[in-house]
Design a protein that fits this description.
Elements (H helix, E strand, L loop, with lengths): L1 H13 L2 H22 L8 H21 L2 H5 L11 H22 L3 H31 L1
Helix pairs in contact: 1-2, 1-6, 2-3, 2-6, 3-5, 3-6, 5-6
């Protein structure tokens, strides 16, 4: 029984190309953000880090959309989450925050602002990861 649950969990995160890509990207984001936060006093230029986090976060969103069959759900089929679910609506809100933080950092040349936007992006992305991945695991369990 436990082995079967373990195989389901492995399949959930590494069962197909989109699952593998989203899992690897998720780990990259968590490592990059954690290292940046730990070393934040040594970092002088935040624009590049904010841009990288924005781009990798967008890539993760794209991989997760493909992995969870969101496109199929938009076309009237059935995806992992319903289109009107809390998870999808919170992901929309998080995506809007990420977009605003990322784009505004391009135009606002102040490093203090860019640092704050990096932390906003990090928090938003981590929150989205927690919401979606915990929901996926919960749906698998029950």
């Amino acid at each position: 029984m436990l082995a079967k649950e373990g195989l389901k969990m492995i399949s959930l995160f590494f069962g197909d190309l989109w699952s593998i890509l989203s899992s690897i990207t998720l780990l990259i984001i968590l490592i990059f953000a954690t290292l940046s936060i730990i070393n934040n006093r040594k970092i002088e230029l935040w624009g590049g880090r904010t841009l990288v986090l924005t781009i990798i976060g967008l890539a993760l969103c794209c991989f997760a959309v493909m992995r969870d069959d969101y496109v199929t759900a938009l076309q009237g089929g059935e995806g992992f989450f319903a289109l009107d679910s809390l998870q999808v609506n919170l992901s929309y809100a998080g995506g809007a925050i990420n977009l605003l933080a990322g784009i505004s950092s391009v135009f606002v040349k102040n490093q203090k602002y860019r640092k704050i936007m990096f932390f906003v992006l990090s928090a938003s992305i981590v929150l989205k990861i927690l919401i979606i991945e915990i929901s996926r695991i919960a749906l698998l369990q029950g």
